[in-house]
């Protein structure tokens, strides 16, 4: 694989989980492109399917889940949905780095970080293990840690922020150029959050990565992402350049999310919580729009027809109300294109 | 190293106090069991025409203490004897020190029980991993059921079944005693072969009765570890299967070492039922005899031996953890 940031094209991806009520989709017909060298953020509530989507990039959806349809094309790797066995194992870690949520214990508690680094190197047939250790120390040093000390530590001797940086180091040390970060700042204090986000931005730029950040925190996306995709009930409801989406949200769900954030200045009552609760795997509507139960723009068509994402310039919105109102502009854009 | 030394010192001090406490308790319990073999012998001697004073002296010489001394005096004598490793003299084997009787019986218990425990541990943990990994398949079900079944059958029933199958029906292995008296004891093939032959069924019974506990414990431990984040993390980092397997195994086996150490500690108690059924002259067999024959000194000694074994096993288990689990080593809370 080249040393350049790969592009990723997720097309019509559907992931289902086996439940007593049959196979239910956690991710349904998601189409998303990660431009080479970009940082894309996916926001959504718990259960929106964002972590399942992230795991799909490594073809690592855990049973009882499985990828039921669609493709994930990664430059240099092809469609990872078709990868199996050793091919898939080698792609993980070497081409795609995955960074776990900080609160999760992503390290073997019985081994030092250094020994696990060597395990990683041996798994991927790295001949120059000394070089690998040097690279790891450099990365850790780059993130403000004492590399030698950290490599000699066990997980329980590291703080949450340190563990997260170790996670980033392990994702990058084999020179992967596609990095998926799942809730990278959850369960960290504010200062550590800011540090981790700065590191993500800087390392992304320095190493020339394509980065996907999964989070429930719009603040995180605003901080790092070039492009933003909003997930709800397993569907991508809106996506576009971060500034545009946050500045002028179109989908009623995105609007609701942004209105729910309390401001530093102004009245606390200005923040309005979205009414209702997010759907679960079982309660998500089988047909029609997934958001209609909580939507203030609900129309009759929403009960029966699932809105397709409609492009408007760099932005995509999947909403009958929004798209019928701006139908004329959409047509106009298409004619220009 | 200093940490381990400090821990060891603390354990030994606590263990010492515990041994004294248990020795005291077992002394008084044993002495409160109805029936008094010393008085019985004393009376027998008097009945046989011996003068009371001479009979008292004879009993004293035989057992090392006054049969009619106060309980408190007997207790202080017993405790003082402990420090000289003197556990008194067996009542039923006049003139034989309890310690000799115990060490003689121990060699018949330690090896077979050790062999049975280690065999069942090894088989149990290996099959436990399979039972966990294949838990949604037929193989996993079969393994789990075999574990529950063997775990649920009482030891004496298992022992009788083993005797029935291998000795009565098939007639391939002896089920009585520890060695054929035909052979001259020593390093000769006939004697050693007979030893092994006689040990096979008791060992098999130990192993079968312990196997269920190991496989079930290992299965649940592996299932827990399989759900841990770091296993998924290792897979998502593209770690080799063999390495991920080692991560799982090492983390899953950790809690089982406590159980192993404790069962090795209880090993000195022998397996009472098994030794009784196979007429195997180990510590369990000895203990049954001592209890039925009111051999106070021997009972007290056997109980003490079990106590010491358990306490030592606990100490060994704890020290072992400081070596194999870094979280214990650094004395921090496990997160």
Structural notes for this entry:
The complex is a heterodimer of chains A (337) and B (335). By secondary structure, chain A is an alpha/beta fold. Chain A has one domain (8-95, 176-336): Rossmann fold (3-Layer(aba) Sandwich), CATH 3.40.50. Helix content of chain A is 34%, strand content 23%. In chain A, helix 3 crosses helix 4 and helix 6 (160-172) runs parallel beside helix 7. With 335 residues, chain B is mainly alpha-helical. Helix content of chain B is 76%, strand content 0%. The chains are: A alpha/beta (337), B mainly alpha (335). The A-B interface holds A 55, 58, 60, 62, 89-94, 98, 100, 104-112, 119-120, 122-124, 154-157, 170-171 and B 228-230, 232-241, 243, 247, 250-251, 254, 324-327, 330, 332, 334-335. Chain A: Its main location: membrane.
Query: What strand line-up does the widest sheet of chain A have?
Result: 6-7-8-3-9-10-12-11
Overall number of strands of chain B: 0
Percentage of residues in helical conformation of chain B: over 70%
| Fourth-level CATH superfamily of chain A | P-loop containing nucleotide triphosphate hydrolases
Evaluate the radius of gyration of chain B: 25 Å
Structural class by helix and strand composition of chain A: alpha/beta
Secondary-structure arrangement, i.e. CATH architecture of the domain at 111-293 in chain B: Orthogonal Bundle
Q: Could you say what the CATH architecture of chain A is?
A: 3-Layer(aba) Sandwich
How much strand of chain B? Answer: under 5%
Query: Oligomeric state of the chains?
Result: heterodimer
Give the biggest beta sheet of chain B: none
Shape of chain B: globular
Indicate the radius of gyration of chain A in whole angstroms.
Answer: 21 Å
* Helix and strand sequence of chain B: HHHHHHHHHHHHHH
Subcellular location (chain A): Cell membrane
Family (chain A): Belongs to the ABC transporter superfamily.
Membrane topology (chain A): Peripheral membrane protein
Keywords (chain A): ATP-binding, Cell membrane, Membrane, Nucleotide-binding, Transport
